Protein: DNA internalization-related competence protein ComEC/Rec2
Organism: Gracilibacillus salinarum
Amino acid sequence: MYQRLHWYVIIYLICVIFNDGNFWWILLIMAVLGLILHYCFRFTNLFITSLILFAFFAFFQIPSLDISKSLNTASSTLQGKIVSMVEEQSQFLRFTLETSDENLVQVYLYPSTDQFSSNLDMFRTGATCHLTGQFDTITPKRNPGQFDYKHYLASQGIHYQFVMEPIYNNECEGQSFLQNVYDTRRQHLSQMKEQLSSDTFSWYAALLFGDRQYLDDEIVALFQNWNLSHLLAISGLHVGFIIAITYFLLLFLFRMTLERAQLLIGCFLILYPLMAGGAASVWRASLLAVVLIAIHKSSVKLAITDSLSIVFLLMVFVHPYSIYSLAFQFSFMVTFAIILSRKVISGSLSYTWIVIRISLVSMLVILPFQLLHFYQFQPLSVLLNLIIIPYFTLIVMPFLIVIFSLSFFLPSVLSIADRLFLDMHDSVIENIYKMNDWLSVPWVTGEFPSEFIIPYYCLMYVMFYFWEKKQLVRSFFFSAALVTLLVMITIKPYLSKFGYVTMLDIGQGDAIVVELPYRKGVIIIDAAGTMSADFSSPSTKNYDQIIDPFLKSKGITEIDAIILSHEDHDHIGSVSGILKHYNVNAVITSPFFDQSQLVEWKGMSRADFITFKSGDQFYIDKQLFQVISPVFDMSDPNENSLVIKTVFGKDTWLFTGDIGESGEAALAKQFPGEEVDVLKVAHHGSKTSTSENYLDTIQPKLALISVGVNNRYGHPDQEVVDRLLKNGIKILRTDINGAIIYKFSSNSGTVSTYLP
């Protein structure tokens, strides 16, 4: 029975898929599976019975992502025990607290500078705390493609967020053994931060201790773009090398017996994941090594897949929510795939081909889930892995371990090792940046349709099956079918008769993306930026977290035109990011747009920069856009807003930028019979716009307001809201409804909201 432990993993995963109360489906699947296993594979009735009993246990053990307990979120106090490592970032302190009724709460403290320099040691893992503050709403996903932070916390069993008041209003006492481990980790990293240069320390902290906060964001993005993120997370590669070095030191330098060395390594592998931040990949690699050592010392013989199954089951039963972790899923999927594909991988004696095949297997097995969450992949990463994996394995990791050893035995030469590492590593990273500039051709598919997941894996399995059997022609046929499937997903928008207008929930600003039917054109109307938390400088947050993920989720790589109403930051702040990372054919503004801003953009893009004024019109494919305003320079950016009229489906739309009452009056006078169906309300619903006379003139049926939640301007103004309602106009607002989506074809159009 113990030679078939991987079947328990399969049953567990079936229970995860149907973990929504449909236990009858699991019983039906188990019955069918039991018959197949008994009659086709000669599995014993005892083993099949054990699988059925395990399914009962697993189904009720797997946690639901839906909130199952309630907590008084109106209370200003919170009591419980700290059950996570206390994470201290530059601007906040964060930990997870478990209440007496087993609710998990994410707790934040935003101390002032003097508080960060003061003693925060009372917040310790295992401490019992009485906290004062307020519960904060966990923001749900508000746009297509956006990272779902609420779901991310729920996948860890956390459904509440609490922000503490200043430190002197809170009390914590006690600690657990784990805090001693975390203290050792923090003290060592603090010491090394003082002794190493910032660049070397960032890699040292990330690759040996799992702390990536010091790595430059551009480096993290570079590695993500090339599917190299696994090198920034401690995994089997790192743990295996650390074990090998430790074995060598214990056996040959300290002359220990093999039994004692294995005992010490086993103890080390239990503590190391805690020292390394507790990521799923490092736990998987460390526990697998412990299981293999234990099996080696016993009379039981297990296949490597069953040893990995033991680790899987141990991790999901100790921490049930880990099954929902993307890192956990990727780690086990890649490891199982490499083990099961070992005949394909080892089919060549060439080291180069072995590395390429490992990279290919690793990429293909996680590809649907990668595209489901990140919408793109880098096909050439298979070749880059050929260079980077050996470099990190044979040079970077040994070098960092040498630095670790020198910190204890020869701290006086740390500066020399630091300089050598920097000279070597900086040149390699610089060359990766050059390759990114020259060879980066990411395949942006958009969100992977869930109904294609099973066909994908069936094709992949058959491809590798024939490859393993040396039937390369058949294997090539199914690999071509696999690529065809990805191509079909990519070109799907180009075959659809529907177009979309999406007003993104960008906060206090405007960002509207238009997709014409059959993907004949993609137009962005304004692209708001945002400011840093203290409003001292522009931030790329809107582009990074909303606009870019949305475009990628739609499979968009080229923008036909960016239409900018005027030069305020809440309308153009993300344009630079779009011009840098997307092929943009044209940027359209009024003649009175800020010229200095246009000069800056012309230096970063080959797009055509075109100006239009009132009375002009232009086409994108066959879509007509009429320019209504401005007629002349009104010496005010808002009043100079480019006002555009067009028809989508059966409805006439008016995009108004930030024009005020005087601009509206001029439009009403110039175009007295200009009726529209959908109005993009000017200036986020400010009381300076959307006058009664203007509404009487254009008579819209639907008003769309792009506005930030609880914004400091009080938009939309209540008078404007009342005025719209009095005129029988339906209102949709991004602060209430999230992204607003209009789906249209040649003669129809329907509106929906992203939030229910």
